[in-house]
Amino acid sequence: MRAHPASAADPSQEPSGRYRRPATEAILLVGGKGTRLRPLTVHTPKPMIPAAGVPFLTHQLARARAAGVEHVVMATSYLAEVFEPHFGDGSALGLHLEYVTETEPLGTGGALRNVAHRLRSAPDEPVLVFNGDILTGLDIPALVATHRSSGADVSLHLTRVEDPRAFGLVPTDPDGRVTAFLEKPQTPEQIVTDQVNAGAYVFTRSVLDAIPAGRPVSVERETFPGLLAEGAHLQGMVDSTYWLDLGTPQAFVRGSADLVLGTAPSPAVPGRRGERLVLAGARVAEDAKLSGGTCVGAGAVIGPGARIEGSTILAGAVVEADAVVRDSLVGQGAHVGPRCVLQGAVIGDGAVVGADNEFLHGARVWCEARIPAAAVRFSPDE
Ligand code: GDD
Ligand code: MG
Question: How far apart are CA 133 and CA 247, in angstroms?
Fold first, then answer.
């Protein structure tokens, strides 16, 4: 007889490992329009934009695989046609991937219901769900273990943020049970916690099957509040691991740099972690300086004297001599002229920026735009 029976609330203490069995199925929500990331998302859906040299989704799929997931259903909508040609049946990642495309966007909950028939899990088994734009060190098996040990209907990964207004607020009681779900709070009174929905869930499969079919449903605005009103058990798991929603250009560039640096975990970074990652086929001038987790994509060219810090230069882009690029993203095939200064800027795919331009503080240049060279600035005494 055991002197100290394991606590159900602490699955790591559970000696038989009963709660540590992985969830083998996941749904990835990858159908959003990525509006805040435009112009990066004009030709490419958000999860397919390269971060640290591979489409962002690769990192999420690799982490799911490492956590024991075998079967993933992708819920696609916007630019749905680009996912399957890249990932195919998933065998390169050791996964079985399936794709389901909505004819009209069904929202996060509608998308889940729309793919539920592809799941193989029994009604009482756990199914993982991931938002397709989250970079995190979440301990996926721990979330599944929390779900199993608490007997919840849905378990949610929660994280603490300084400004929760852009997220779903999820207050919990002392046992971690969710007491409310407030998506994108509008008034100061609604900001009752700094715990937010981190975009990874475990659903008991039957709960997914019960979402209404054939119409748009928001899991955040309808499903979660509805479940709480019915007395369902929603369990939160708060942690302080790395977490970033890559929904804005600044966040995307940060996330990619953190993957290159090794601050953000992923088994899918194609190279050694460090100050820079230069993909095969890129050409970098000998005296160019790349630092802060900069990634240079295949076929890109970096000219002499260029300084690039914490930035993502996508495939086939050109950054000419003596340009300074910080915390910025240069899109596929874009061209940044000599001596340009980019700071927190986004240059869309195929854009051409002439010499001596400055783009600072969130400036965005649209895809294929042509920006002439800046007029030469004379110093006052000339
Ligand atoms: N298939 C499909 N269909 N997917 C969709 C749809 C749709 O109609 N709408 C959105 N998605 C996908 C997006 O591609 C993304 O992966 C995920 O659902 C979440 O959508 P976002 O647009 O990124 O939402 P958000 O960032 O404003 O808020 C969500 O994430 C936060 C955490 O980052 C919410 O879940 C918040 O509660 C949460 O805090
Ligand atoms: Mg998001």
Answer: 7
Average pLDDT of the segment spanning 20-30: 92
Residue 110 lies in a domain: yes
Per DSSP, 377 falls in state P
Nearest to 260 by CA among 240, 241, 276, 284: 276
Alpha helices in the chain (DSSP H): 56-66, 83-87, 107-115, 140-150, 205-209, 224-229, 249-261
Cα(32) to ligand 1 centroid in Å equals 6
Q: What is the mean pLDDT of residues 159-184?
A: 96
245 within ligand 1 shell (Cβ under 6 A): yes
* 228: containing domain: 25-247
* Ligand 1 pocket, mutate which of 133, 160, 195, 224 (most atoms under 8 A from CB): 133
Domain total in the chain: 2
The CATH number that applies at residue 42 is 3.90.550.10
Please check whether residues 113 and 227 belong to one and the same domain: yes
Band the pLDDT of 346: cuts 50, 70, 90.
very high
Do 236 and 322 share a domain, yes or no?
A: no
Mean pLDDT taken over the chain? 92
Q: What's the CA-to-centroid distance between 109 and ligand 1, angstroms?
A: 10
Ligand 1 and 133: CB distance under 6 A:
yes
Catalytic residues: 184
Mean pLDDT of 139-152: 96
Lowest mean pLDDT among 28-42, 129-143, 246-260, 284-298: 28-42
pLDDT single digits (tens) 324-345: 999 999 999 999 999 999 999 9
Per-residue pLDDT, averaged over 92-111, amounts to 95
Burial class for 366, CB neighbours closer than 10 Å (0-12, 13-18, 19+): middle
Q: Are residues 55 and 127 in the same domain?
A: yes
In a domain, 348, yes or no: yes
Residue 263 lies in a domain: no
Whose Cα sits closest to atom 28 in ligand 1?
A: 167
157 and 234 in a common domain = yes
Those residues with Cβ within 8 angstroms of residue 286's Cβ, 6 or more apart along the chain or in another chain: 304
Give, using CA atoms, the residue closest to atom 14 of ligand 1. Answer: 32
What are the distances in angstroms from CA 92 to CA 33, 120, 268, 278? 27, 21, 12, 22
